[in-house]
Amino acid sequence: MHILLTNDDGIDSPGLAAVYDHLTPMWEVPVVAPAGDQSGVGRSRSDLSYERADEIEITDHEWGYVVDGTPADCVAVGLRHIPEAETIDLVVSGANNGPNVGSYILGHSGTVGAAVEAAFLGTPAVAVSGYDHETYFPEDGGSSFDGIGAATRGLLTLIDDTAVFDGAVDYLNVNAPAAGADTIAVTKPLADYDTRVVDDGRTTFESNYWATHPVEGDGFPIGLDKYAEEYPAWSDRAAIVDREISVTPLGTPQSVVDPPSDFVAALERYPIDEP
Questions:
Q1: Are strands 58-61 and 64-67 parallel, antiparallel or unpaired?
Q2: Domain 3-189+226-250 classification at class level
Q3: Most C-beta atoms within 10 A of its C-beta, which of 23, 34, 64, 193?
Q4: pLDDT confidence tier of residue 253, bands split at 50, 70 and 90
């Protein structure tokens, strides 16, 4: 198997290095990663942004390539430009410093955004994020990403011969504990989010990504034990509270839904007579 490896924390992040070290003994793994931290950029592309030039810079690296752009830029370069592009079977994005759980945060995550970009370009993907049960962000607690890299290798080994990507599943969102785990839970993202606009002389946002249990600070819970048994068992958040590896199978957005009949009937009356 040939795996394209990218991330959103940048080429020098310990999470990327850990995943690279665990995957390369088993598979061919060219890296195309951002030059710097691109956290929270979602699936933004430089050629679709008014704030960035259309042109990006690509430089060689001992593991592959460094792109002065977003994670989605890196995926596009990896699947459509580099010499190894036609051999890529799977894109792995991560490991991110901190979990990406909850349906709201998935739209903001550059780690997940890279996986979505890969799916739109016709290649299945796995987004990997790591969490520390006490400090939330592994780097804040000085945690090694080695266990997260090992979990990534183990998961890819398990699914290599399965049909997971043969149907509606386009990518997997994976959250693994830095301390290691004995179980994997197949989960769904939980919708749990709120925000406030605060005006105390200057206008700022205070977003709470665990909104049913508000936390102080920047909206992330410190010490996941306090949330035990607070979330539905099927959810990605319950899995990380329980110290499991959360694996969420997802399809590319946007979801198509059938509208109610009265809505369709109302639109059929267009154009309406002016009053």
A1: antiparallel
A2: alpha beta
A3: 34
A4: confident
